[in-house]
Amino acid sequence: MTLPGAGEIARAVSAREISPVEVVEAALRRVEERNPRINAVVTLNPRAVDDARDLERRLGRGEPAGLLAGVPVGIKDVTQVAGLRTTFGSPLYRDHVPDEDALVVQRLRAAGAIVLGKTNTPEFAAGGNTWNDVFGRTRNPWNPERSAGGSTGGGAAALATGMIALAEGTDLGGSLRIPASFCGVVGLRPSPGLVPTHPSDWAWDSLQVTGPMARSAEDVALMLQAVAGASPYSPLRQPTAGRDFPGAVRRGPRKNLRIAYCADIAGIGIDPAIEAVCRRASLALAGQGTEVEIVALDLSEGRDAFLALRGLWFVTWMQDRLDQLDRLGVNVRNNTRAGLGAGVPELGRAEAVRGRMWHRFRTFFERYDYLLTPTMAVSPFPVEQNYPETVAGRPMQTYVDWIAPTFVLSLTGLPVASVPCGRDAEGMPVGLQIVGRPEGEEEVLALAAALQLVNPIGLPV
Question: Which pTM does this prediction carry?
Fold first, then answer.
């Protein structure tokens, strides 16, 4: 049995219609059935059933149920969970067991969610295909011979197969959006500071964010409501007073919207079949006062800028491991060395590009309410590949160039969601990115829900 959605579980548990223990046991059975082939959940929480019993006792005493009462959640294996092995996908941390929960885990528990276990990730979340030397490869539930995407690939695959109802993840260059697209679920990259990241080796990190993933936009909104909000542990913050993400989804998008669609924002090309699915889904929104315009938007200068800032990110995060680079995997090693070789002028140019992109979008949103653009330029590729070498017949310049449609948008700091909008000729999911105004997560999620409603793709068998 595939788990119901997070909202349905929380409602039923809160109403005492179902026991949280039953929910967790059903999730564990699903893991037993599907995980050996998919390899999405890498470490189970041995206390999951006990945590569910604790919740049941609290409910029996009349204590508040919490927004996510009884909802099984998967935590990405780069996010700390107290007492539960957290490897960062690295042999260096194969047996690492943290002493404290990350802030996002604390907030999930406070909302009544049950940590089912850790989900697979590339080493230190470096890569758009989920594999590492500790746990191996995560496979796509729609076709196990294909990639689930990355770096939150374990979370996306576990969601699509019904092992969990919510997934926590991180997004530097697309790590919540890429696997959401490949696995047919919804992933949201929140704007920096909305969901604080703690502990962190870079307190002022505005490029990587923590965020939610679920099978529906409604459930993403529910999780975001539980984990968003300023923290004294983080200097990056956003006000959340009065913000109601689930309510925004229930209300739906505003009327008389102006929507822009661009097929290739990064200038790398796109598979024509993918583009056709995304264009059709976008144009289907036109009517009843909503305008959809096909536009040319060239953000290709963000490619070199992101790579420079990505190098800085790795050098900052790897400070305590720089003397162990030879023990790290090829993706982490090469990204860190690229960062060590970058000069101040290169980083200065990257920040200048980032500033120009911000102002381009400031002007863009004077005319349009949203930008829609394909999440991925390719369909899920063979799981054994590190990355696809070509896009629409064009060779890629770097191993991450194929994910440029997501990473150029990371530079903007804007809220971006990937929502399934159809399937390709081989039956694989296709994702569409929704880019919203600053601090516009409510509007992004409302449109994501509307798109899901008119483009249902179902779940893998």
Answer: 0.98
